[in-house]
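Box 3.1 A note on notation
Throughout this textbook, protein chains are presented in two layers. The first layer is the amino acid sequence; the second is a token string describing backbone geometry. Keep the layers aligned when reading.
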Amino acid sequence: MLGDVSGLSILDLGCGNGGKLASLAQAGAAQCVGIDISGEFVTEHLDSLELVSADFNSFDSLHEVEGRKFDRILFLQSFGYAKDPVGILRRARAVLNDDGFILLTRTQPLRYALERAEVNDTLVGDEYFASGEFTYASGWNRDISMTKQRYTISNLLNTIAQAGLWIEAAEEPSLSDEQKRDFPEKHAWANKYLAGILMFKLRPLTEVGGLCQSPMSGTSLGGVG
């Protein structure tokens, strides 16, 4: 969904160790800035790669970002850590170049609902529509716990709309037939828990006569922006 990144500027909010961003820099991206609170970054030394140890919730106050514009802004499985989801998307929208877009990925929320229902001996619907935080063991280290806010598909779509963005494209990647054959255990687990991710390509709505409008559809939305 990112397309050719040659010559582009990219901001990765919640970049983890910066490995994905480093690969984009190696693919020709001209300026790559990654922000993550962990500060445990890959060691590649590339002129076009800058990794910053900071909380991405305050990225607009960092001098590494101040006054800059970006062609691509990434939230790759990091959006769940936004303290103000609508606010962070609005700030990201403000530092996009005119033809830029945001690439946002989130785990399919039904996965978490299914897992919580199994652990808590509750109903899937009750868990899916429940509010508040939940904690679970991380997939890479069972001794580390992760805490996130519950969300539904409608929560996510409303957040995107309230931030003044529209969805140009959405995808749900799945295992290829070859991967299903090579990794049957992963295939079985993904089928049971719907453990895919949701990928959204987001662009700013344009304001026409006080209304926000999607350039593609021409649909106007009052009170969004």
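The longest helix spans residues 109-120. The mean pLDDT is 87.
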